[in-house]
């Protein structure tokens, strides 16, 4: 459904404002509210993640799309209706029946239903045409505009997820697995050919061999990655810190998601730091907290939620450190102000800290507004591969190089240890105002392990306009280059294979523009050859990304892997040469930092400029 200009799924609000929070001792706990029998020991079927999956299967979403219904009645007659779905879940649907067809609804017993779920109504993977049987659960009437409306609630004969697995993905997923193996074989074959022709152009063929080996190794180690198993008894104290700047539209949803965690309320603290917003963000925060406090008295929200405002705009780092210094728990979680946590995100995120050498952990970030337009869809594929494959491959060596801003957890004592250096970081004489997550990761990684927990999931709002997206990507490239050069000073102390991957991962993107120019410009003009081999190589890389996404996610968005590779090759790649010569800059380009304001005044621009989606670091 549309929210402003963005398209996001709209879960129906629970009657309980914080439905996933375990009840205090002596009351019913969260699973009791849903009808689970509880004993002294938690049986396997009541493992926290299993409980959350069960809850998610019954989550209702607001909808508005047509349904073609063929009902059977208790007197064995068929009735055809053109209804509209107003709510849908994995297990059933609520339909509004036309008023002229609302007679004798009590006679309806079951039926066959045809409909098409639009993208953005339900979680990804559910958007498709459906033809399914169902039984009537109940019928009722409700007063609406201009008269009485008639409703029919149905229960599907099988959950939509199982229906899609049987009818839609039954052959597609195995085919994706086969095609993945075929693509890998073709890449290996092409790179074997590079050895044969190596003596004709050492640089070009060496680059192709290194790039292919690097990419395939990432997929290999990413596939070997496993989550740290969830220990239901491990529940350390956690302080969540949300730095906020001009995020009026999304901050309420972010706050609610951080508090509505399947985690003991007494061990979870929330600190919101407003970095002198110029819109209605502060008022929206206060309104949200009033509603939460009114309901959450028994969860002690007044004692564990803090809202503080900075007196002047000091930047994201200062806001985070203010929150860390106020935190009372040993683990601190950084959450961007336009990111939304899944209910079991915190419980899963803290699991790697059972290892005393683990200094920081990143969760998986998905795209919340994935169905807005083609730009958000290609970012959806890119985000998943970047986390589930690339970041997971680094986690195999306990050396994740970027604990991403939307959801990451650190040991508080380590953050405080590096706080002054982080706040006052300069590069080539310029203050380092962005790349907060990469910079802090470098400080932690120098002396500790860093990890990735794929089961800790959040979603974030990504830029849906080309201008904002390109600004974000330029900022990320600058911070990546700056922090990668810093990491060179200590990465050689890590495992040799990890250091080799890091080194190659630094060289390949930097050299990529030269290689693309050589293949698309130099060879056709000066040698008269069409770069067919290079184009085939690009196509294989796109197939690798797309088929991996289809295999893991079972989503129709898999084809946007091809779109992303094209977009990257012909647009994003050419930001890299600009980043080479401007990576010292300290302006964000998407929010009013002091450096942006100064730069804008110097160019004669009007300020302030409100921050938009995509302000957070990667």
Provide an overview of this structure.
The chain is an alpha+beta fold. 43% of the residues lie in helices and 21% in strands. It has helices spanning 30-33, 48-57, 160-167, 172-196, 202-224, 251-259, 281-295, 301-304, 316-326, 345-349, 374-395, 412-417, 419-423, 436-445, 466-491, 496-527, 532-553, 560-570, 575-582, 594-602, and strands at residues 2-3, 6-7, 61-73, 78-88, 92-97, 108-116, 129-144, 147-156, 238-244, 268-274, 305-309, 331-335, 339-341, 358-367, 407-411, 426-427, 430-431, 449-460. The longest helix has 32 residues, at 496-527. It is globular, with a radius of gyration of 26 Å. The chain starts with a strand and ends in a 16-residue tail after the last helix.
Briefly summarize what is shown.
The protein has 20 helices and 18 strands. It is α+β, with helices and mostly antiparallel strands and 618 residues long. 43% of the residues are buried.
What's the topology here?
Layout: E1 2-3, E2 6-7, H1 30-33, H2 48-57, E3 61-73, E4 78-88, E5 92-97, E6 108-116, E7 129-144, E8 147-156, H3 160-167, H4 172-196, H5 202-224, E9 238-244, H6 251-259, E10 268-274, H7 281-295, H8 301-304, E11 305-309, H9 316-326, E12 331-335, E13 339-341, H10 345-349, E14 358-367, H11 374-395, E15 407-411, H12 412-417, H13 419-423, E16 426-427, E17 430-431, H14 436-445, E18 449-460, H15 466-491, H16 496-527, H17 532-553, H18 560-570, H19 575-582, H20 594-602
Parallel strand pairs: 9-10, 9-12, 10-11, 14-18
Antiparallel strand pairs: 1-2, 3-4, 3-6, 4-5, 5-8, 6-7, 7-8, 12-15, 13-18, 14-15, 16-17
Helix pairs in contact: 4-5, 4-17, 5-11, 5-16, 6-7, 11-17, 11-18, 15-16, 15-19, 17-18
């Amino acid at each position: 459904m549309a929210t402003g200009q963005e398209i996001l799924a709209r879960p129906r609000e629970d009657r309980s404002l914080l439905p996933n929070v375990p009840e205090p001792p002596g009351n019913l706990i969260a699973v009791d509210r849903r009808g689970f029998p509880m004993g002294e020991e938690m049986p396997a079927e009541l493992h926290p993640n299993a409980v959350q999956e069960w809850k998610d299967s019954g989550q209702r979403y607001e909808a508005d799309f047509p349904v073609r219904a063929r009902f059977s009645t208790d007197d064995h007659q068929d009735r055809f209706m053109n209804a509209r779905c107003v709510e849908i879940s994995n297990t059933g649907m609520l339909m509004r029946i036309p008023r002229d067809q609302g007679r004798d609804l009590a006679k309806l017993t079951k039926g066959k239903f045809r409909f098409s779920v639009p993208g953005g109504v339900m979680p990804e993977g559910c958007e498709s045409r459906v033809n399914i049987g169902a039984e009537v659960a109940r019928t009722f009437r409700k007063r609406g505009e201009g008269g009485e409306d008639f409703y029919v609630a149905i229960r599907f004969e099988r959950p939509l997820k199982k229906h899609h697995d049987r009818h839609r993905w039954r052959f597609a997923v195995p085919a994706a697995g086969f095609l993945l193996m075929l693509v890998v074989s073709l890449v290996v074959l092409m790179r074997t050919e590079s050895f044969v022709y190596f003596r004709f152009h050492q640089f070009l063929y060496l680059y192709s061999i290194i790039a292919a080996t690097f990419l395939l190794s990432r997929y290999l180690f990413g596939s070997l990655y496993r989550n740290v198993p969830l220990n239901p008894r491990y529940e350390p104290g956690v302080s969540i810190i949300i730095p906020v700047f001009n995020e009026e539209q999304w901050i309420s949803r972010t706050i609610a998601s951080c508090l509505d965690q399947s985690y003991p309320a007494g061990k979870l603290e929330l600190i919101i730091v407003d970095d002198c917003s110029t819109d209605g963000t502060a008022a929206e925060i206060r309104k949200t907290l009033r509603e939460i406090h009114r309901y959450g008295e028994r969860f002690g929200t007044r004692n564990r939620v803090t809202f503080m405002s900075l007196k002047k705009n000091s930047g994201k780092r200062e806001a985070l450190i203010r929150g860390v210094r106020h935190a009372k728990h040993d683990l601190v979680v950084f959450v961007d102000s336009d990111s939304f946590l899944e209910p079991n995100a915190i419980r899963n995120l803290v699991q790697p800290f059972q290892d005393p050498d683990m200094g920081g952990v990143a969760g998986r970030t998905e795209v919340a507004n994935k169905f807005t337009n083609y730009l958000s869809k290609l970012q959806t594929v890119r985000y998943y591969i970047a986390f589930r494959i690339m970041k997971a491959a680094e986690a195999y060596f306990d050396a994740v190089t970027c604990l991403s801003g939307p959801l990451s957890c650190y040991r508080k004592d380590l953050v405080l240890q590096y706080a002054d250096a982080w706040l006052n970081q300069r590069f080539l004489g310029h203050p380092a105002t962005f790349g907060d997550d990469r910079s802090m990761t470098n400080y932690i990684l120098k002396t500790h392990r860093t990890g990735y927990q794929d089961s800790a999931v959040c979603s974030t709002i990504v830029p849906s306009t080309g201008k904002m997206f390109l600004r974000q990507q330029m900022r990320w490239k600058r911070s990546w280059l700056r922090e990668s050069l810093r990491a060179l000073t200590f990465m050689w102390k890590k495992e040799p294979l990890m250091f080799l991957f890091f080194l190659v991962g630094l060289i390949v993107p930097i050299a990529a523009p030269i290689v693309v120019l050589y293949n698309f410009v130099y060879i056709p003009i000066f040698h008269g050859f069409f770069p067919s081999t290079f184009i085939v190589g690009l196509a294989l890389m796109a197939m690798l990304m797309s088929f991996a996404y289809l295999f893991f996610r079972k989503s129709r968005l898999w084809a946007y892997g091809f779109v992303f590779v094209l977009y990257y090759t012909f647009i994003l790649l050419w930001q890299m040469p600009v980043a080479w010569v401007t990576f010292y800059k300290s302006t964000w380009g998407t929010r009013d930092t002091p450096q942006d304001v100064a730069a804008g005044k110097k160019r004669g621009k009007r300020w302030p400029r409100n921050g938009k989606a995509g302000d957070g670091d990667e």
